[in-house]
Every structure is written in structure tokens, then in C-alpha cells.
Amino acid sequence: MEQKDMLRIVLVGCGAMSRAWLQTATELADVEVVGLVDIYEEAAHARARELQLTQALIGTDLGEVLERTRPDIVFNCTIPEAHLQTSLQALEAGCHVLSEKPLAASLEAARTLVAAAKRVERYFAVMQNRRYDANILRVRHALASGELGALTTVNSDFYIGAHFGGFRDQMRHVLLLDMAIHTFDAARFLTGADPVSVYCHEWNPAGSWYDHDASAIAIFEMTGGLMYTYRGSWCAEGLATTWESDWRLIAQRGSITWDGGKDVRVQQVQETGGFLSTFRDVEPDLVERTERTQGHSSAIRDFVACVREGRAPQTSGTDNIKSLAMVFAAIESAESGKRVAVSW
Fold first, then answer.
1. Stated pTM of the model
2. What CATH fold (topology level) applies to the domain 133-292+324-341?
């Protein structure tokens, strides 16, 4: 793109999540927030007052704000059901788009957006902030060293007793739709593998406070013969995992366990020949916490840098649609009781 002194940003959807987006944007010297859009105009005014965005144009009509401000980038923080319309309108207006998760509310809508971004030659990416976490990067680097050999099996567990109240208590496929995308995308990020097929079973445990199935087990076949399993529940009381899940990654010459936080353990085969091999503990290198490893903030900073430097974002729609496809294939399998091929 043509280099500019300042990149102009419009944010759409001024709910609670927008605060973090705008706080990061206001910290960047080379961007200017020129517009805020929300169906409730007072929500946009309130956010502008809070963050002292006195020059930002406030409006309820995205098209009008785009026409008057001519932004380079649109941040889409709307509800999932509005992602297709909002992102598509922004792309067709010539803007690069960074959208909150999920990419879209359906796989068909996601394909439409990916195709639109390609057609208009604009970047379209998703807020997959966990890829910018120092702990997951530490695990990824340990795998990338090659010392453990090729991965064969990856298991992840997610168990949290979440008493949300509100719409999630009545939501169908609440775990798979609302949370599993994070873990599925992390599995792809760690392994470099893509989904091939899935068998998934959902159920609602006795005593659950959810109206529909809130627990699931999924078995994914991935490229390269890798097997990935996901076990999770929104209504598991006690001994909760981290929000990033609990992991075991098994390779040909060793294994890694990761609690989703700072606890990363690596054992490598030292000697074989007996009934059991012997192992040595390996201390994985620490990943320095920098502006590139601060999760949500780093994802926004990186997207802005990609737009300025003309490089594809790592969470681009063309990549993230593969993680979204895992969600919808798992739901299809759970509903049909059959193994389902994953396509995107």
C-alpha cells in the first residue's frame, strides 16, 4: 500500500470488548481513530469520551462513516451475527479489516469474506490473540527445534465450571461454538498441521446448569498422520484447567506437557533398548515478553504493521477459516453421530 504518515481507523461495535482495541490503537504513534460506529449512538459517544477521542466521527451508519472518514483500517467488534455484513461492507469500501472472533457465524459466510478480501486485495484477519502469548510460543519453539522428532499425537483438555447466566445458558453447542475455536486454533498453531476429519460426541452432564450439551470430546485426524484429541466442558466443577487448556504433545523422541500457563515440561529420549527408555529433562528456552507477546494488544499492533509493511497477517482469514471449519465439522459430527471430513 502507499505509505502514509498516519493510518486511519474506524471501529464498529462499541461494546465492552472495544475498550481494549481502542486503548491499543491510541498507544500507536502512527494511527488515528477517525470514527466510531454503533447501532446505539450513545455507546459510541461514551467510548469516545472515555478514551478522549474528541476528533472521532460518531455514527450509527457504517457506510456514512466510511464515506466521510475514508479509513485505511476497520476494526470489527460487532456481534458474530453482524460480522459478515460489517466486514464485507468495509472490504468493499477498500479497507483492511481486523475482526473479532469468530471470522463469521457460518462457514459459508466465512468463505464469502475470504473471497471478498482476495478480490479487493485487502488484508482480512481475525483476533486470534492467543497466538501472541509468550507461553504458547515457548512450546512452539521447543517443538520447532526438532530435537523431539516428528509429532504423532496431541491431546488438549479444557475444564472450567463457568456460570455465565444469560444467553449462553440457552445456547446450543455452547462449548464448541463459544470456546473451542481458541483451542482448535492453538492446536493448528502448535503443530503446523491442518484438519482432515473429525468424530465428535457432545453431551450434557447430570446436574448441568446449561439447557443443551455443554461437554464434548472430539478426535481429529490432521495432515501428516497426526492425531489430535479435544476434551472439554463448561460445567466441570473443581480442578479447573487454565483458559488455554492443558496439553500433552507426544513426538517420536520425547514429549511435552503444558498447563496453558508458565509450566512447560519437556522430556527427551536419552537411551533406548530396554523395556522402558531413559529420558533427560530439557529446559525449554524462555520467550521474552515484548510488544509481540502481549496477546490482544500484540495482535492489533501486528495487524497495523502488516498493513503498513505490506505483509500478510498470521491470523488472516485464509488461515483462520481452517480453525473455524474444525468447529463446524465437530458440530456436524456431534449431530450426525458420524465421522465428518473437514473442508473450508
1. 0.93
2. Dihydrodipicolinate Reductase; domain 2 (3.30.360)
